[in-house]
Amino acid sequence: MIETELIKKEILAIVCSIIPFDHEERKHLDFVQTWIASGVEIFRTAKPDKPKTHLVSYFVLVDPSTNEFLLADHKKAELWLPPGGHVEVGEHPKQTVQREILEELGIEAEFLCDDPQFVTVTDTVGNISQHTDVSLWYVLQGNRNQHLKFDDREFHQIRWFLPIDIPYTRTDPHMKRFVDKMMKNILL
């Protein structure tokens, strides 16, 4: 239990270090900081949605040579999303990324940035139990020519997108802002 509390404090410190891109992200950061500091359970303790608000790690593979982003056509959410998953109890969100990328794409994580670069609070949609995901967005080095073996139990397909071609009407509602932040701050 002490270890879980230390992880929560570390997650809070990481969230506090994120520089918001815009007013919307500032609101999300304020919510997340208050939420974690309140002492409530932040990890999903039971599938599919206990507690109703819990932590998720997204990871976005970016090919810096082409500025393309990898998204997955997610079966349950019925959206094009970054891969990722729920942070297990006592797990560091970066470990979640390392675990999930092996499970979902069959490769090891190569972080462009050690810490998440974006934070969102989103109510889920699709054919899943409705809940709220607090998502930490990690950015990983990708290569559009690399062979990826995606998890076909979770995804219909995966695809690389130029920012202009991302299906923003069928993706995470914060995807456009994330892409804009990455293009401004990480990819040039």
Low-confidence spans: pLDDT under 50, at least 5 residues? none
Shape, principal axes of CA atoms: globular
CATH topology: Nucleoside Triphosphate Pyrophosphohydrolase
Rounded to an integer in angstroms, the radius of gyration calculated over CA atoms is: 16 Å
Total count of helical runs of at least 4 residues: 4
> Which structural class do the helices and strands define?
alpha+beta
What's the CATH architecture name? Alpha-Beta Complex
* CATH homologous superfamily designation: Nucleoside Triphosphate Pyrophosphohydrolase
Q: Average the pLDDT over all residues and give the rounded result.
A: 93
**Main sheet summary:** 7 strands, mixed
Proportion of residues in helical segments = 25-40%
Terminal Cα span = 43 Å
Strand tally is 7
Query: Mind telling me the CATH class?
Result: Alpha Beta
Strand content: 25-35%
Order of helices and strands: HHEEEEHEEEH
* Count of individual domains: 1
